[in-house]
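Protein modeling request. Please complete all fields; requests missing the sequence field cannot be processed.
Requester role: graduate student
Desired output: 3D structure, token encoding
Chains: 1
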Amino acid sequence: MSILFAILLFSILIFVHELGHFVAAKLSGVQVNEFSMFMGPALFKKQVGETLYSIRCIPLGGYCAMEGEDQDTENPRSFQKAAWWKRFIILAAGSAMNFVAGLLIFLIVFAPAKQFVTPVIADAEPGCTVVSETGLHIGDRILKIDGERIYESSDVSMILSVNPGDIHDVVVERGGEKIILEDLRMEKHIFGEETTPRFGFSFSVEKATLGSKLQYVWNSAVNVARSVRLSLQMLFRGQAGFGDVSGPVGIVQIMTETAENSERVSDALRNMLYFGGFIAVNLAIMNLLPIPALDGGRIVGLLLTTAIEKITSKKLDPKYEGYIHGAGMVLLLGLMAVILFKDIFTIFKR
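Delivered output (350 residues):
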């Protein structure tokens, strides 16, 4: 059941993305030839006006096929004939819908919350060197670590893992003032008979209000968006490798393992919904990357061609941009296939 739920949730999020393009195109007066839920051979088709609505057999993705999307046509309602700002809105609408979906999912997840853990130092164990006269103080709210903003208490460990080492620059709020702690030594120690090293301090807990819930929902979405940048940063720095990258199969596997390790069904559902919000925001940000075939690459191409046409007063043939995006799609599909086989191999290896 957890696997089916994960696949369904993943498919719905991709469908929501395409729905954003569809709604924006309709509102902009662009002709939509077909709007499909899922991929592969059609199980159901119905022509309504100018648009063919279909449900296909492979429960992954979907598409919104617009008239003249990659080539110029004589149709005055084609995508290429629309004003550049309308095309911009249509291309960005998919990611916008995913981001909104992520916010709504996070709102469902955190709505029942009674309290939140905040990045405010509540207590320190004897022998903790991080909380001292020259370091953190009880009551300090951690605002930044190494230039990265701290939205939630869990951000502290995440940022420290991205920036390894014992020396960090920390900004805290203390007594209503911002205090900069440069070159703060944050070392983990073994406390008592424990075997796992810890910093030795704990965070405060505050009662959840409507305002704090909405703030937590927004911070969670922004935090996920930042995690995309940090992940790419780690890949370029060599802190992460190809083995750390997962596709849909790997993500579904992680979601199901999380659900199976939950104590109660309600906890499993909440954890999987949180993953759904995480994936929704990830899809929103990843699709805006300036890579050919992705919405971000199309937006960059749109802005460049619009600028060139304004300067030269000549209409560029959209088929050349279509060739670029077609090549990008082939490369992306190849990468997805490699990641797919890697995820499957990892599952069977276990």
